[in-house]
Write a structure and sequence with these properties.
By secondary structure, the protein is of the alpha/beta class. The chain has 13 helices and 8 strands. Strand 3 (83-88), helix 5 and strand 4 form a beta-alpha-beta unit. The protein binds zinc ion (ZN). Zinc ion binds next to strand 1.
C-alpha cells in the first residue's frame, strides 16, 4: 500500500492568489505549460484518477498559498477516504487566528503548514505556539518547512522570493514542539539541508517525523552525502515509525512522481529494510497520523 504524505494542490484559486496581475488561472497555467486546473472539484477528480493509475491509496494535498484551504476542502469533500487536506498558514498574517480556526473547523483541514523562511518568523515565536495550541485542540498535524526553500512556480513566473533561510531551523521547532506532546509534526525533505539538525530535533522531540519527499536536491549542500546515506542515517536515529513517504507531486500533466517512489524503493532494497518497516514508511505511518 502506498500513501503519499506530500502533494501540492495547485488550484485555479492558488494561481490567482499567487499572481493576481497575470490575467487569471487559465492564462497563468498556459504560461507555465500546465493543464488548466479547472474547478477544485475537477482538480480533485484529476488527482484521484492519477492516484488510481499508480495504485496510491491516499494522499495529503497541500493548499499552497494562504487563503486556499477552501479549494482543498472542496476536493477532499468528494473523496474523504482518499484525500487529506493540509493548508499553508501564515501566523503573521492579518486575522491569522480566525483564519486558522476557520480552516480547521469549517474547512476540516488536518494539517497546518508553516513556511517560516517565507513569512518571516522564528519557530520558537509565540505565534507558532498559538498554531500548536490550535493543532492540539483540533487534533491536527503541524508541517514545518525547514532548510532551503525554492518554490518552482514562483521562479517560473518571475515572482520575488526573498526568503530568510535562517528561520527554518529544526532546533527552534523542537523547542516549541516539545511543549505539545500530543501534536504530530512533519518536517519535509529530511530537513532540506538541515539534515543533522532535523535528526537532532527528532531525537530530542519524539513527535517530529521526517518526510522523504522530492528529489532531495539539498543533498548537494551536504558534501558527499547520498540519498542512500540519508535514509541510513534517518533510519538509525529516527526509525521507520517516524518516516513518511512523500513525492512532492504538484501540477498536471506531469502528475504523480513515480520516479521518486521507485528510487526510494530501490534504496529500501539496497539497505535491506524489513517488510514491516517499509509498510510503515510507505503507508502505515500516514494512516496513523491521518486516520480515515
Ligand atoms: Zn512541497
Amino acid at each position: 500500500m502506498i500513501n503519499d504524505s506530500h502533494c501540492h494542490f495547485f488550484s485555479s484559486r492558488f494561481l490567482e492568489l499567487l499572481a493576481p496581475e497575470m490575467g487569471g488561472a487559465d492564462a497563468i497555467a498556459a504560461k507555465l505549460q500546465w493543464e488548466a486546473p479547472g474547478t477544485a472539484t475537477e482538480l480533485g477528480d484529476r488527482w484521484i484518477a492519477e492516484l488510481d493509475r499508480y495504485d496510491v491509496a491516499r494522499a495529503a494535498l497541500i493548499a499552497s498559498i494562504p487563503g486556499d484551504a477552501v479549494s482543498v476542502a472542496e476536493a477532499v469533500a468528494h473523496h474523504p477516504h482518499r484525500l487529506v487536506g493540509l493548508f499553508m498558514h501564515n501566523p503573521m498574517g492579518l486575522d491569522s487566528d480566525a483564519v486558522l480556526e476557520r480552516s480547521l473547523t469549517s474547512f476540516q483541514m488536518h494539517g497546518i503548514c508553516l513556511f517560516p523562511a517565507m513569512h518571516g518568523y522564528r519557530l520558537d515565536d509565540e505565534c507558532v505556539e498559538r498554531v500548536f495550541r490550535a493543532a492540539a485542540e483540533h487534533r491536527a498535524v503541524v508541517f514545518v518547512h525547514c532548510g532551503v526553500l525554492t518554490v518552482g512556480v514562483r521562479k517560473k513566473l518571475g515572482l520575488p522570493s526573498r526568503f530568510d533561510l535562517r528561520l527554518g531551523d529544526p532546533l527552534a521547532l523542537a523547542r516549541t514542539a516539545l511543549g505539545f506532546p500530543q501534536v504530530p509534526v512533519i518536517v519535509p525533505h529530511f530537513g532540506a539541508g538541515f539534515f543533522r539538525e532535523a535528526l537532532m530535533a527528532a531525537d530530542q522531540c519524539p513527535t517530529i517525523h521526517l518526510d522523504t519527499s522530492s528529489s532531495n536536491s539539498w543533498i548537494r549542500f551536504d558534501g558527499g552525502q547520498t540519498l542512500d546515506g540519508v535514509f541510513r542515517g534517518a533510519l538509525a536515529v529516527v526509525g521507520a515509525s517516524r518516516l513518511l513517504f512523500g513525492t512532492d507531486s504538484s501540477f498536471f500533466p506531469r502528475g504523480w512522481q513515480a520516479g521518486i517512489y521507485e528510487e526510494q524503493q530501490r534504496i529500501m532494497n539496497s539497505l535491506g529494510v524489513s517488510v514491516d518497516d517499509r509498510a510503515a514508511i510507505f503507508g502505515g505511518n500516514f494512516d496513523r497520523l491521518f486516520p480515515v
